[in-house]
Amino acid sequence: MNTPRRTSAALLAAVLLCAPVTIFAREASVGKPSVLYAEPFKDAVVLQKLSAATTVKILQRKGGWSKVQHQQNEGWVRTLDLRLGKAAEGSVVADTFGLATGRSGSGNVVATTGIRGLDEEDLKSANFNAEQISLAESFRIDAPVAESSAASAGLQTHSVQYFDAETETTGTNNRHD
Predict the structure, then answer these.
(1) Of the candidates 122, 120, 32, which has an alpha carbon nearest to the alpha carbon of residue 77?
(2) Could you tell me which of 82, 83, 77 has the C-alpha nearest to residue 36?
């Protein structure tokens, strides 16, 4: 039997399963001066100020926040303030990336992040703001003005089927493309 091999494989598997998550952390740099917070909220305790180009390890993501490690501190930074490590200029990876995307040279870094709506904490801390409601309502226009604007922009009216869940009937709704 291959007992030493099986033992070694089992030991390696156990070590990997028990290893801290930071082994699998992804390196990033701070894209602009930022703040390391104790919790993923803007009003949380500030642990440290981070300057642009500070290297951090991303440990976790939650909404628009990333939990990072910098030196001895672990805390939360806005995900939009982070940039994932980029390939060195002139490397095969950078050259291939440039060919694939049509971008090459410096200054062509594109950063995006996906944030899915509001989290529970955002909803709990939300407050009614009559001024913002009034501002939003000030942008409202009536249907004839909207139709006139759409026509002057060269948009055409199309009939679109919709489903009304309350009455379970199908009707039509006009919209402009």
Answers:
(1) 32
(2) 77
Exposed/middle/buried for 56, CB within 10 Å: 0-12, 13-18, 19+?
buried
Q: Which residues pair with 61 in a beta bridge?
A: 66
Provide the edge-to-edge strand list for the sheet that holds 65-70. Answer: 46-50, 34-37, 73-78, 65-70, 55-62, 26-30, 82-84
Half-sphere exposure of 24 (CA within 13 A, CB side): 7
State the pTM of this model: 0.41
Tens of pLDDT, residues 25-72: 688 889 889 999 999 988 999 999 999 889 999 999 888 899 999 988
Alpha-carbon dihedral angle through residues 50, 51, 52, 57, given to the nearest 10 degrees:
-30
Side chain identity, residue 120: E
Three-class SS state of 58:
strand
Name, in order, each residue with C-beta under 8 angstroms of 35's C-beta and a sequence gap of 6 or more. Answer: 46, 48, 49, 50, 77
Phi-psi category of residue 139: left, alpha or beta, with phi > 0 → left and psi -120 to 50 → alpha: alpha
User: What's at 122, amino acid-wise?
Assistant: D
Collapsing DSSP to helix, strand or coil, 98 comes out as: helix
Quick one: which of 31, 30, 125 has its CA closest to 73? 30
**22 or 129: which leads in pLDDT:** 129
